[in-house]
Design goal:
Elements lengths: L7 E4 L2 E4 L3 H14 L3 E6 L1 H8 L2 H8 L3 E4 L2 H10 L9 H15 L2 E6 L2 H14 L4 E6 L11 H11 L3 E5 L4 H13 L3 E4 L3 H6 L7 H5 L3 H8 L1 H26 L11 H8 L16 E9 L17 E11 L1 H17 L3 E4 L3 H9 L8 E2 L2 H12 L3 E3 L1 H6 L5 H17 L5 E5 L8 H16 L3 E5 L3 H9 L3 H6 L5
Helix pairs in contact: 1-5, 2-3, 2-12, 11-12, 18-19
């Protein structure tokens, strides 16, 4: 059975599972035997550098079934931030461990990536070294974007061969893009991006000596072997390591100064750490609302309330959190990940300034969505699960002040949504990706609000960014569109 409760260490914007190579392979075996599609990521410093400003890639890495640490600098950093990552789980080592398991269990393996010559050579070598493992398919995609690949042909071939293990070797982030988009459709129990591992198998690239690997300097060896390609990349990677490590240290190292004499407010916040549940009104969806308060740190994580299950939307009220360290962020990331894995809505309700700083500094807005209060959270649930219309990414882009054509298209879509809204429904506009609102967009929002209000219906704006919030406050529409206060 797959162990789902692995501890999570939060490092430089990503959650890493606290796991050894042996445990990773054991979990992979359980994943394959469970026959439910999933994917693993072996993340190193380059993954962190690329994911920092790439929301799509960050979300892919954040929600992988396993995120293992493939870099000694990250292992060293974990000793400072806690919890400690026990060892480096190198993808180029893990594939050989998986081959041994495949050999003993008669698994079928499919390779996607590299060139036809390397794939043919890999298949020949593995057939000799692992006779119990069958390489049932190999596909060399064209050198272009993932969207331009013959994906229907690839998926059809995967379905025909029915592998137990799908290994994609085209490098980050392309391999992660393809896996996240197609792993469920492919139906393979376990998919993993393996980068340059096929070159190591064929001997076209040579790994560092074992002693170099053990002292954590394999990256230096690789750079020395290919300085033209890797010097610039590693310089960028270590820049991000330094900047993000310092940022995480500043965010999580200093506790607030608290008086020895406890105030009634502090006592109330301590009490608020007990689990609480918002009681929905008739016709609303049931949700779990938990409160975290005080200091959320390594020493008291066992006292932090966790959800009784992941069978309904989950929201964490973090308004009372006065301090959170890296272990606390790791626990928060773990809850968010498990909610996502269970397919339930997750969010934070009125996160404190301390939590907000972490979310903003580490670019976690998409993974840890925030809501102003319980009512706004319930409105979002109603919009997603109940009889309501939600205008998503398309309209968010149309609202951006980039030209008259966008404005007109936005107006058309918004008017249509208003006309189609039925009694008891709520029209929700998620502005989490929108940087600003111009006067035209404000006027269209007001027109939509007035039209709905005259029919006894509701329009709400959720998760606006700070600049959009300022615009709404300056133009006097904040109370109407965000708070929902008609007479404000």
């Amino acid at each position: 059975m797959i162990k789902t409760d692995r501890d999570v260490a939060f490092l430089l914007g990503l959650p890493f599972h606290v796991i050894t190579m042996e445990e990773t392979v054991g979990d992979a075996v359980a994943q394959v035997e469970a026959r439910k599609p999933g994917y693993y990521v072996t993340a190193n410093a380059d993954f962190i550098a690329q994911a920092y400003s790439n929301e799509g890639l960050k979300d892919i890495l954040f929600h992988a079934d396993r995120v293992v640490c493939d870099g000694m600098p990250l292992v060293w950093l974990s000793r400072y931030f806690k919890p400690v990552l026990p060892e480096r789980v190198a993808g180029s080592d893990m594939v050989f461990r998986l081959f041994r398991e495949a050999d003993g269990r008669n698994w079928k393996v499919y390779f996607l990536g590299s060139d036809t010559e390397t794939l043919a050579q890999t298949k020949s070598i593995l057939a000799k070294d692992y006779p119990g493992m069958e390489v049932v398919g190999a596909f060399s995609p064209p050198f272009c974007s993932v969207d331009a690949w013959p994906n229907e042909e690839i998926i059809k071939d995967v379905h025909a061969t029915r592998p137990d293990l799908l290994l994609v070797a085209v490098g980050c982030p392309k391999q992660e893009y393809w896996i996240s988009r197609f792993y469920e459709q492919a139906g393979v129990p376990l998919s993993i991006g393996i980068g340059a591992s096929l070159d190591f198998i064929c001997g076209t690239q040579t790994r560092a000596p074992v002693w170099v690997q053990k002292v954590g300097m394999e990256w230096c060896w690789r750079m020395a072997m290919n300085p033209k390609r890797l010097v610039k990349r590693y310089a960028k990677d270590f820049y991000y390591l330094a900047v993000l490590a310092n940022r995480q240290r500043q965010l999580t190292a200093q506790k607030p100064v608290v008086s020895d004499q406890k105030s009634p407010r502090l006592e109330e916040e301590a009490i608020s750490q007990a689990p609480t549940c918002y009681v929905p009104q008739a016709g609303e969806h049931e949700c779990n609302f938990l409160s975290w308060g005080g200091e959320v740190e390594r020493g008291n994580l066992d006292t932090i309330p966790l959800p009784p299950g992941y069978d309904r939307p989950l929201f964490l009220d973090l308004s009372g959190v006065s301090f959170i360290d890296s272990s606390g962020i790791g626990l928060l990331a773990k809850v968010a990940r498990e909610s996502h894995a269970a397919g339930v809505i997750f969010g934070l309700v009125h996160p404190s300034e301390v939590v907000e700083k972490v979310i903003q500094a580490m670019h976690l807005d998409a993974q840890l969505p925030s809501y102003h209060d319980e009512r706004e959270a319930m409105d979002f649930v109603m919009a997603q699960l109940g009889p309501a219309h939600v205008l998503k990414e398309k309209v968010i882009k149309l609202l951006s002040p980039f030209g008259r054509k966008d404005h007109l298209e936005c107006q058309e879509v918004l008017n249509q949504a208003v006309e189609e809204l039925l009694e008891g429904e709520i029209l929700m506009l998620d502005l989490s990706d929108l940087e600003m609102l111009d006067s035209f967009a404000i006027s269209q929002l007001l027109n939509a609000y007035r039209s709905l209000h005259s029919r006894g219906l509701r329009l709400r704006v959720i998760r606006p960014k700070e600049q959009a919030l300022q615009t709404m406050r300056m133009t006097g529409v904040y109370d109407l569109l965000v708070e929902g206060r008609v007479n404000a």
